[in-house]
Amino acid sequence: MSYFFYLLQYQLLKHLQIEKNWVFTVILSCKEPKVIEIDSKELLNNLKELSDDSFEGRLFSSEAGKRARKNIVENFKNAGLQPINGSYEDEFSTTLREKQRQLFFPIKKKPLDDYSNVPDTTVVGGNAFGMLNGETSKDIVITAHFDHLGIRDGKIYNGADENASGTVALYTIAKYFRNKPTKHNLVFVAVDGEEVGSVGADYFLKNYTNKNNIVLNINLAMISHSDYDPELFVSGLYHYPELRDPLEDIHTDKILLLFGHDDPNNKEQADWTFSSDHRVFYRNKIPHLYFGVPDHKDYHRSTDTYATINEEFYIEAVKIIIQAIENLDQHFIDD
């Protein structure tokens, strides 16, 4: 049986499950998949690099995290991105208190139950960004957080899937579009501080001078790891059903693209509306779409390394996201 017909059978099975309250949609088409040409080897090598031990798990505000940000800036420049307001990065500070401070920057003595003996600490992080100019003044902002959990109990938490995968996908997406002008400006932001509450995304949006012209946020987090069925979710259509059509026009025979994880009334699925940096855009009434996979056995563990990602799945996921950007770019012009 061909892989295509396996997926077709899977699609029919999923729709039959709707009566059991499995409220999501599988996207599959009989049309030929669109040919998306990317440098797959470079994509994988970039993921190996950012999830390497040398970046020590990219802890927010750490020296290793800063080195990771500098590495991202160089990759953004190499991808042809232009600076925003004359710069490719911006630092910010935030204060961590009580339990949050103890989780990321623990004091040596045992904390009290109410953390009253844990002093506040102010730390500095920074975002990396760049853009490709479009034909209008409107923006599509593509985000991925690069910070992770650092070193804990002597183990490096490299965060290959979560979220080096989303971050280095930005380079490949930028290179794809640099010679294919879009209607909208494409703004690429590698945000810091997601693990401590999306402080980098919040800082970016509060200080972005073209905020009122953002039509969409596309957030990428955990797009390289599928243990069983090759499933990639896009979350957000419960809130923005008008974005369904351009996503249904994506054609692939290698991955199951599913809609879901966004309905607060669906008790069968976790609601991802507030699960990552797209929550900042949602709270600011800016439409978002979030591409990712469910939590897996290596999520937030030291085993989330390059060795545990699925290379072919990752390559195809990036191609699907590129198709989504192309379709959505046209959708907002036609709308």
Explain this structure to me?
This protein is of the alpha/beta class and about 325 residues long. It has one domain (about 5-60, about 75-85, about 125-335): Zn peptidases (Aminopeptidase). Helices cover about 35% and strands about 20% of the residues. The protein contains 9 helices and 11 strands. A 9-stranded mixed sheet has the order 1-10-9-11-8-4-7-3-2, with helices on both faces. Strands 5-6 form a two-stranded antiparallel sheet. The chain is globular and about 60 Å long. The termini are far apart. Mean pLDDT is about 90; it is low at about 1-30.
What is the strand and helix layout of this fold?
Layout lengths: L2 H14 L8 E3 L12 H11 L12 H16 L10 E8 L1 H7 L16 E12 L6 E7 L4 E3 L2 E3 L2 H18 L7 E7 L7 H9 L6 E7 L10 E5 L8 H5 L7 E4 L18 H6 L4 E5 L18 H24 L1
Parallel strand pairs: 4-7, 4-8, 8-11, 9-10
Antiparallel strand pairs: 1-10, 2-3, 3-7, 5-6, 9-11
Helix pairs in contact: 2-5, 3-5, 5-9
Largest sheet: 9 strands, mixed
Helix % is 25-40%
Integer count of domains: 1
Strands across the major sheet, in which order? 1-10-9-11-8-4-7-3-2
The third-level CATH topology is Aminopeptidase
Task: Provide a quick synopsis of the model.
The protein is an alpha/beta fold and 335 residues long. It is 33% helix and 19% strand. The strands form 2 sheets. The chain has a 9-stranded mixed β-sheet, with helices on both faces.
